[in-house]
Design a protein that fits this description.
Number of domains: 2
Radius of gyration: 19 Å
Strand content: 15-25%
CATH class of the largest domain: Alpha Beta
Strand order of the largest sheet: 2-1-3-4-5-6
Distance between the termini: 29 Å
Bound molecules: flavin mononucleotide, iron/sulfur cluster
Structural class: alpha/beta
Order of helices and strands: EHEEHEHEHEHEHHEE
Oligomer: single chain
Number of strands: 9
Amino acid sequence: MNKALILYFSGTRNTKYIAQLFKKAFEARNIQVDIYDILKYDAAGNKTKYDYLVAGSPIYVELYPEIFITNIKKKVAKNTKIKAIFFATQAAKSLTPSFNEVYNYYKNSDVEITCTDYFRMPNNFYNFLFTKTPVSQYRSLLDNASKKVELITDEFLSGSRNIKKASNARYYFTKVMYALSYKFYIPSAAGKVSINSDRCVKCKACEKNCPTKSLDINSSTPVLKTCIMCQKCMNNCSQNAFMYKNKEFDVYKPIES
Ligand SMILES: Cc1cc2nc3c(=O)[nH]c(=O)nc-3n(C[C@H](O)[C@H](O)[C@H](O)COP(=O)(O)O)c2cc1C
Ligand code: SF4
Ligand code: SF4
């Protein structure tokens, strides 16, 4: 029986949701699947030989975030003989340069990427920037994503190529925008996040689950400069205690865990 490895990074569950749809689609086609949050995946300790890789992440500032790139490069070595799909989830309707980095990195290696594709999902960043996707659109976005997973899986397993990739010029320009955003905008936004002490019960779940260990709930500016703004903390607090610019956080929950 063929085996597939699914690795994902996800802040507010959109990407985890798509990864789970891929799991179902592969299993329905008689492929055994192991699925991991990429941050928890122990590549060195896993001796299973996989035929297929499905790897995905949200895009931040039009690119795969550095946390995903670093982990995928570390955990999927270039000499791994495997056929791969890379997917992204995003709010935008059109292609971003998110796939260029992995496509260029694994080119001419044993990791054979035959599919790169993106899923339009509800926007999770509306507390900070952009507008909220109308709740009335959530269902159709999720249904469309589900159909797309089926199509991609069939195409991929039949051996056809489906590579969506932007020009390298656009990719390098976006890399500069990404670096500037993470140098200036994101730390500035993080500095405006606070925790409502009347609500916080000091359970520390947010600190424990932060992928970059960027929280100190006892500080008046609890989000540290290393925050990547994945929003796991803000959207999973059982007391909805997070605030941005002293306003209650509008919690993002189109997908239940
Ligand atoms: C810091 C940050 C930056 C984002 N930048 C973009 C962007 O440039 N373009 C876009 O379409 N969506 C952007 N988004 C929206 C997310 O990519 C989208 O909602 C994604 O599906 C969230 O996935 P997750 O729930 O798995 O974390 C951004 C989200 C965050 C948190
Ligand atoms: S998860 Fe919420 S309640 Fe728990 S420590 Fe963090 S802010 Fe406080
Ligand atoms: S502090 Fe930043 S990186 Fe950590 S969970 Fe919260 S938003 Fe994500």
